[in-house]
Amino acid sequence: MSSTRRPGLRVEAPCRADLAGGTLDIWPLGLLHPGAVTVNAALPVRVCLELELDEVRGVVRHRALDGSERRLRAEDAAADLTAAVVFAVRPEGGVSVRVQAQAAVGSGLGGSSAYAVALTRGLLELAGRTADDAWVAALGRDLEARVLQVPTGAQDHWAALAGGVLALHHEPGGERVERLAVDADWIGARLTVFDSGIAHHSGMVNWQVIRRRFDGDRDTSAALQAIAEAASTCRAALLAHDAPLVGAAIAAEWSARRRLAPEVCPPALAALERVADSAGAQAFKACGAGGGGSVLLWHQPEARAPLVHALSDTAPAGRLVAAAVTELGCQVLESA
After folding, report:
1. pLDDT score of 225 more than 80
2. pLDDT confidence bin for 20, thresholds 50/70/90
3. Global pTM?
4. pLDDT tens digits for range 61-85
5. Which residue did the predictor score with more confidence, 1 or 228?
6. CA 5 vs CA 51, 53, 105, 119, 332: distances in Å
7. 184 with 164: CB under 8 angstroms?
8. Where in the chain is CATH 3.30.70.890?
């Protein structure tokens, strides 16, 4: 069947690195620790999609980064994020989605959330509709929970929407998003994100933490409280441009996070941390729930090159992911 294609567009959204306070954005964990905050920074690692509408209703044509193609229908929405987003925003379907860039699966950088944000914003633009960022973030969070069948948080979606350095305050009635007045070049010179090459499964780790917290496990509750306190310190240190205190806060957050579950820092990741410490890192932590994927390093500007060299020698499958932050959030870049 032939179809009439309408002009399309290109949409990009950044991924993120969480400096402190991750996991607390998963409702309602943050509410159980009053004053809890999650601090993250958008990275120049971007999801890029090309979207078109056509007259073949009821179908989503999806072309992945590797060139493989699928046709998705409404019944696929329960288990597929692309279908879930498209049929939630445009129930009649009739959309072509081509992935031009995407974070690696298991990177720990919130790539699936950035994808959901870019897809939602693009579909709204094509339809001539508007929606505020809070609705887009909530839609992405809730659809990911449905598709993945695990609890999900909101920090990834807000980083993708807004860019920059954010503090998400977890308050009754919804998160309050604060854009921190931090010089992007200042933080970018001291922050490096490196892919460890170690696979991880964040949903499994997060579910263990959530279950233990609600079972009243004292060690888990104490670790989450320590994470909340470290994140609050990190926020204040960033606003003061106090580099040593930022590093101390990230290190404290990681120390507390490691207490949540053994899977947060498996032996291979611990070995990489020791290499980073020896090569001059002031702080080391896994991005996201931990277990592998990307790691965040806080360091003096001149220490980046020896750190990356040392980590690359230790983890041949690893690679430098980002050495900067971006102020740019989700953008509709151009019409086709």
Report:
1. yes
2. very high
3. 0.94
4. 999 999 999 999 999 999 999 999 9
5. 228
6. 11, 6, 31, 18, 19
7. yes
8. 184-322
Task: Write out the two tokens for 96.
Answer: 């072509």
CATH topology (fold) of 184-322: Alpha-Beta Plaits (3.30.70)
Amino acid in position 65? L
Measured CA to CA, the distance from residue 169 to residue 34 in angstroms comes to: 9
Q: How far apart are CA 33 and CA 222, in angstroms?
A: 10
Instruction: Give the pLDDT score at 205.
Output: 78
Query: What would the CATH number be for the domain defined by 9-180+327-335?
Result: 3.30.230.10
Cis bond upstream, residue 91 (ω within 30): no
d(CA 334, CA 50): 10
- Residue in this structure with the two tokens 């094509």, named with its chain if needed: 126
- Segments of the chain assigned to CATH 3.30.230.10: 9-180+327-335
Residue in 199, 157, 8, 215 with CA at minimum distance from that of residue 97: 8
> For residues 25-46, b (16+ Cβ closer than 10 Å) or e, as one string?
bbbebbeebeebbbbbbbbebb
pLDDT digits (tens, 9 = 90+) for 81-115: 999 999 999 999 999 999 999 988 778 899 999 99
The answer to whether 295 and 268 have CB atoms below 8 angstroms apart is: no
Average pLDDT of the segment spanning 150-177: 96
